[in-house]
Write a structure and sequence with these properties.
transmembrane helix, membrane, transmembrane, Sodium/glucose cotransporter, globular, 0% strand, single chain, mainly alpha, 566 residues
């Protein structure tokens, strides 16, 4: 790892230092607004839609988005666009139009708390524990990449970088809670764009513009060639050689199960919308986020593709990978796909812009880790500690628990970062985690929200069985029972988890006692009056502030992008 060094000058270090000081200053400023647990965990439900909307998208612009997607761009090319245009935007629009009214209107403090109100303590406990575990593991991914940047910039050992990076995130979250995270995420969004846009433009100039990139990718037939310039059928990404099965795998596995499972039930994202000042703002939060989300691929995936044809080590890695596999490619070159963005930065960015780009990467990783940590401390404090360990304590007590949980999360993330270090493509790791935790959760939510007969027993049985089935599929793939290249195994595991969860929930629901209909208002669509799901003055708002018209516009745009790049 120390072979890749970013030769920054003093001006680059100055930019990075100023950025860190600003981040800590935001945390200190936000501390003044934290006097109770709701202000610490949910910003007092007082923020406008444009702030929560930018924070919503920035919280997802972490290691997965930036390094993972650039790695996927280098490895697969255009099919990686599916993670945005099939695997994100439609689900974000659905969250804003259909699901946020239930979350916000019920005044729950977390997604697992909604699960407790709908299905009782069994499903709630399973959801809260699995979510908390997932956030620690995913925080480790962001922290690992933070430590990697520090290692390559300063030459520090990885463990020192991990500790320093964790300490910075810990400082501003402990001080200012969710408000500090959200305000920093808005700042980080602009820093990330300012960092990655010049990298993309300079990289394109180096390869001869867009047509030059197309020509170079097409010429590299051994590593994918022209297949990397078409989004469909995306066989290399899905792992299915048959184009029909590949399309089904992407649409159902990624576009429906993994995508809707992540965006509609993941409290990391939903928490930002819950911090909004009213239902309309909460609904607009993911819809506002969907518009920049459509265009993020052009500053994260395209640089990965450029690096794969411009950087000598990565070009060689890709050739050996295609012929002899991952281990041989790493041994021959000393790099992996995860290094794509760093290698491109090293080779094309001048002094000053390199510092800005490094600050942008650090911003992305801190945004991602802070989002994971702030969601973890809320679920741990409200859904685990308050519900099952210490009930009916003063509000100050839970505020202290939240700060202690923040410290614990950052410490544990240091160790979980070492797990992420074992994956050459971090998206493989993340999609596996999402298959374990998000796919069965989405199935449970979907059935529970639209079928009033779904019972509490069915809720926890479906969750446990769905998660275990995803684990079984993963183990079978890892032990050679079957083999799917790319991220096909993750798509299959998610699909199996979803189907197993739905089938078992239906069977168990028909054999057990449902909740009384009178207790389902605000939790089940058919039992909730429309007046409970919208603000009374929504119709008087201008069209650009109304959720449904803006969601329709977003859907039209994302369909157009899918057609243009098909």
């Amino acid at each position: 790892m120390t072979e890749i060094r970013l030769d920054a000058a003093w001006i680059d270090y100055l930019l990075i230092a100023l950025y860190f000081l600003f981040v800590l200053g935001v945390g200190w400023f936000a501390k003044r607004g934290v006097s109770n647990s709701i202000e610490f965990f949910l910003s007092g439900r007082s923020l406008p839609a444009w702030v929560t909307g930018l924070a919503f998208i920035s919280a997802n612009l972490g290691a997965v988005e930036v390094m993972g997607m650039s790695a996927n761009g280098a490895q697969y090319g255009y099919p990686t666009f599916h993670y945005f245009w099939v695997g994100a935007v439609p689900a974000m629009l659905f969250l804003g139009v259909v699901m946020m009214p239930f979350y916000y209107g019920s005044k729950v403090r977390s997604v697992p708390e909604f699960m407790r109100m709908r299905f009782g303590t069994g499903a709630h406990l399973v959801n809260a524990i699995s979510f908390a575990l997932a956030q620690i593991l995913i925080a480790g991914v962001n922290l690992y990449l933070l430590g990697t940047i520090v290692n390559r910039l300063l030459g520090w050992p990885l463990w020192v970088g991990l500790v320093v990076a964790a300490a910075i995130v810990l400082a501003y979250i402990t001080l200012g809670g969710l408000s500090a995270a959200i305000y920093n995420e808005v700042l980080q969004f602009f820093v990330i764009v300012a960092a990655l846009l010049p990298l993309t433009l300079i990289g394109l100039h180096r390869v001869g513009g867009w047509q030059g990139l197309v020509d170079r990718v097409t010429a590299d037939s051994e590593a994918g060639g022209a297949e990397q310039l078409s989004t469909w059928p995306g066989a290399a990404l899905s792992g299915f050689e048959n184009p029909v099965l590949s399309t089904i795998g992407i649409v159902f596995g990624l576009g429906f199960v993994l995508s809707f499972g992540y965006w509609t039930t993941n409290f990391v994202e939903v928490q930002r919308a819950m911090a909004s000042k009213d239902i309309t703002s909460a609904r607009m939060t993911p819809i506002i986020g969907a518009f920049p989300k459509m265009f993020v691929p052009f500053i994260v995936i395209i640089p990965g593709m450029i690096a794969a044809v411009l950087v000598g080590e990565l070009t060689r890695y890709k050739e050996v990978y295609a012929a002899e596999g991952e281990a041989a490619a790493t041994a021959a070159t000393g790099v992996t796909y995860n290094d794509s963005l760093l290698l491109l930065m090293r080779d094309v960015l001048p002094t000053g812009l390199l510092g800005l780009a490094i600050a942008g990467l650090l911003a992305a990783f801190m945004a991602g880790m802070a989002a994971n940590v702030s969601a973890f401390n809320t679920v741990f404090s409200y859904d685990l500690w308050q519900q099952y360990v210490k009930k009916d304590r003063p509000d100050d007590y839970y505020l202290k628990v939240g700060r202690i949980a923040t410290v614990a999360a950052c410490v544990i993330a240091i160790f979980s970062a070492l797990i992420a270090a074992n994956f050459s493509n971090l998206m493989d790791y993340l999609q596996t985690l999402f298959g374990f935790f998000n796919a069965p959760l989405f199935a449970t939510f979907l059935l529970g929200m639209f079928w009033k007969r779904a019972t509490p027993t069915a809720g926890w049985v479906g969750l446990v069985a769905g998660t275990l089935s995803a684990v079984v599929v993963f183990v079978m793939s890892e032990t050679g029972v079957f083999s799917l290249p790319g991220q096909g195994a993750a798509f299959l595991a998610a699909g199996v988890a979803f189907v197993v969860d739905i089938v078992l929930m239906v069977v168990v629901s028909l054999a057990t006692q449902p909740k009384p209909v009178g207790e389902l208002r605000g939790l089940v669509y058919s039992e909730t009056p429309r007046a409970d799901l919208v603000d009374p003055d929504e119709k008087s708002l201008p069209i650009w502030r109304r959720p449904v018209p803006m969601a329709i516009l977003g859907l039209v745009l994302v369909i157009a992008l899918n057609v243009v790049f098909a």
